[in-house]
Design a protein that fits this description.
This protein is α+β, with helices and mostly antiparallel strands. It has 3 domains: 108 residues, Acyl-CoA dehydrogenase/oxidase, N-terminal domain (Butyryl-Coa Dehydrogenase, subunit A, domain 1, Orthogonal Bundle); 109 residues, Butyryl-CoA Dehydrogenase, subunit A, domain 2, CATH 2.40.110; 152 residues, Butyryl-CoA Dehydrogenase, subunit A, domain 3 (Up-down Bundle), CATH 1.20.140.10. Helix content is 53%, strand content 14%. The chain has 15 helices and 10 strands. The strands form 3 sheets. It has a 4-stranded mixed β-sheet. Strand 2 and strand 3 form a beta hairpin. The structure holds flavin-adenine dinucleotide. The site of flavin-adenine dinucleotide (FAD) has 20 residues, from strand 1, strand 3, helix 12 and helix 13.
Length: 437
Amino acid sequence: MAWNFETEPEFQEKLDWMSDFVRLEVEPLDLVFRGPADPFDPARPGPAAAMAPLKKIVKQRGLWACHLDAHLGGQGFGQVKLGLMNEILGRSRFGPTVFGCQAPDTGNMEILARFGTPEQKQRYLDPLLAGEIASCYSMTEPQAGADPAQFTCRAELIGDEWVINGEKWFASHADFARFLLVVVVTDPSVPIHQGASILIVDRDSPGLEIVRNCAVGMVSEIGVGVHGYLRFDNCRVPKSHILGKPGQGFEVAQSRLGGGRIHHAMRTVGLLNKALDMMCERSLSRNTKGESLSQKQLTQEKIADSYTQITQFRLHVLYAAWLIDKHRAYTREVRREIAAVKAAMPGVLRDVVYRALHLHGSLGMTNETPLMAMWATVPEMGIVDGPTEVHKISVAKEVLRDRKGCDTLFPDYYLPDAIEASKKKLNWALELEVGNH
Ligand SMILES: Cc1cc2nc3c(=O)[nH]c(=O)nc-3n(C[C@H](O)[C@H](O)[C@H](O)COP(=O)(O)OP(=O)(O)OC[C@H]3O[C@@H](n4cnc5c(N)ncnc54)[C@H](O)[C@@H]3O)c2cc1C
């Protein structure tokens, strides 16, 4: 069969189990441990202790670290199955950590598995894969995020050590990570795509300072949050702490960025369905002017539009995942589809979450439902892993790549010329028509 939208019954059983497990065992953690670092920092005693037995069950069930292929240390399910799993995990902040597939550790595991030396894997990948430590990926700089050509954080090889100087911005989980993968300029004489490298920096390295932590959303206190503003002042790491070869930084980064973007989109499907569930429950329960909200056609339009947008987005995400499984590489076709999904994500979130908020009236504005926290993800998903504009540019370039313009005054589809050309081609048939009249 060329197209098949069904899930294998054996895998559906796993998904059904996950669905109950996440609702009954994992979602309560979201309600009790509400700090920004709680799901991610292994040193938080309460959340870590509450997660430990759940992680054990997930490992016993063979559902741990499903983002990785078997030869990289994961379950080897592939991206479509991971997409279906992430739809369930996306409903919960703790879900991905309990299943060993939380960002940014997922991408870091992927590149350590692909490019790490045996020593690097033993020291950094093994405990990360086991869920014992957290990690950070630090690329963005205060003066430049979407334009890597402006990166200035520099590492020079002096003797047997890389010496790092510069600043980094929005390094998620840097505060409590055991190590950071830092994108640095190692050769400023060539374009950044050939002159950047990734270094593994232990969190306790002298010369690495967290200037401040930043929070996303409406947090009134400054300096809390999980995104680090970092300063490197003659920070030294051993020469062997390079991931891949000098100058290979962007090639190494590419595989983690592609995966990261599609995983965000998969989890977003889960979040969107949660918003739709709330929208439906509220509209079926709230009465106004003699009938339930669900009986009002303007409410029905909101529900229908949301369902349709979620379904379209979900199928696009799964299609991109299917392409990754098919090509087993980040080919141009795969990158185009991931970029398209990434660019569509904030728009679908904005529309669906806004409708859900709006249908809840004043209750939706409060901090007493999950809706306002979901609302904060709308701008976040438009920026994290690159702004929407940059991804749209990539999609458009790919769409335009194999097309060409015309060199005539009017376009190919200008009907007077097109009809004339077709008439010449079908002249023999036209003559039959004339003879019949
Ligand atoms: C929640 C969150 C977590 C993050 N975690 C990490 C992390 O762990 N590690 C890390 O390194 N980074 C992280 N980032 C940073 C993220 O990758 C950058 O914010 C992103 O790449 C954009 O960079 P910027 O913030 O400097 O925005 P800018 O590059 O300044 O862009 C700002 C705006 O300018 C416009 N713009 C930019 N470029 C173009 C263009 N080519 N064409 C048209 N318009 C354009 C867009 O409107 C864009 O939104 C995180 C960000 C968020 C929000």
